[in-house]
Amino acid sequence: MGNNVNDQVKKAFDTVRSGGVILYPTDTIWGLGCDATNRGAIEKLNSIKKRNSKSPMLSLVRDVSMISNYIEKMPKNLNQLISQLNEPSTILYKSPKNICNLLISDDNRVGFRIVENEFCKLLLKLMNRPLVSTSANLHNETFPKSFKEINEEILKQVDYIVNLPKDNWCTKPSTVLKLDEFGSFYKIR
Questions:
Q1: Which helix (H) or strand (E) holds 60?
Q2: Mean pLDDT, rounded, of the chain
Q3: pLDDT in tens, 70-94
Q4: Which of 16, 64, 70, 102, CA to CA, is 20 to 30 A from 38?
Q5: If pLDDT is split at 50, 70 and 90, which confidence band does 1 have?
Q6: Bridge partners of 139?
């Protein structure tokens, strides 16, 4: 499978780099994604989902060092905190920088999840910037529990559908945690 993964990573990378939106497998559910620093791409993604940009979407990152390029001040012992998490978890960080403001919440936070999925890790390595990740559903519809449930409208509008096995499906979105100033997590979702 390795070869196919690399082939798909390259196609997805070409799409994302040129401002496109991809439909791709993550370590949780199938997601819609684009370059987290490209406003036009994020607006396109919002219009595919028919969502207003009021609630920011999370982004996937490769590792802690990637996060450090996108927030003003790294929380102390972040590696250690993250290593204690035992499920895919999105963390909301304060004072983002270098990222599209459509991804920043009203209380000036940005959500990042370090991803474990091979395809995402390879794509992020090529991109060297965060990848927006949002469930592959229209706004206010429930997120699809299998690839087959993804709305035809979405399939028609994305620029590229990653062609990897559709069965390694996890039907649970990530946990969402907020990091407070004392370096403790509290759960939002």
A1: strand 58-61
A2: 89
A3: 999 888 888 888 888 888 889 999 9
A4: 64
A5: very low
A6: none
- CA-wise closest residue to 93 among 39, 49, 81, 83: 81
3-state secondary structure of 20: coil
The rounded distance, in Å, linking the Cα atoms of 141 and 155 is 15
What whole-number distance in Å separates Cα of residue 129 and Cα of residue 8?
A: 18
pTM of the model: 0.90
CA distances from 148 to 50, 72, 137 (A): 20, 41, 12
The token pair at 36 is 């987290």
- In the chain, pLDDT over 90 holds for what percent of residues? 60
Q: Which ranges of 18-109 would DSSP assign to H, the alpha helix?
A: 39-49, 64-67, 78-83
Structure tokens that stand for 173 in this block:
């979105």
Among the ranges given (12-26, 105-119, 133-147), the one the predictor scored with the smallest mean pLDDT: 133-147
The set of residues, in sequence order, having a beta carbon less than 8 Å from that of 71 and lying 6+ positions away, is 93, 94, 95, 96, 97, 110
**What does the alpha-carbon distance between residue 172 and residue 153 come to, in Å, rounded to a whole number?**
22
Q: How far is 2 from 75, CA to CA, in rounded Å?
A: 35
Query: What residues form DSSP beta bridges with 109?
Result: 94
How far is CA 3 from each of CA 10, 119, 125, 162, rounded to the nearest angstrom? 11, 11, 16, 14
Length reported for the chain: 189
Task: Note the pLDDT of residue 170.
Answer: 61
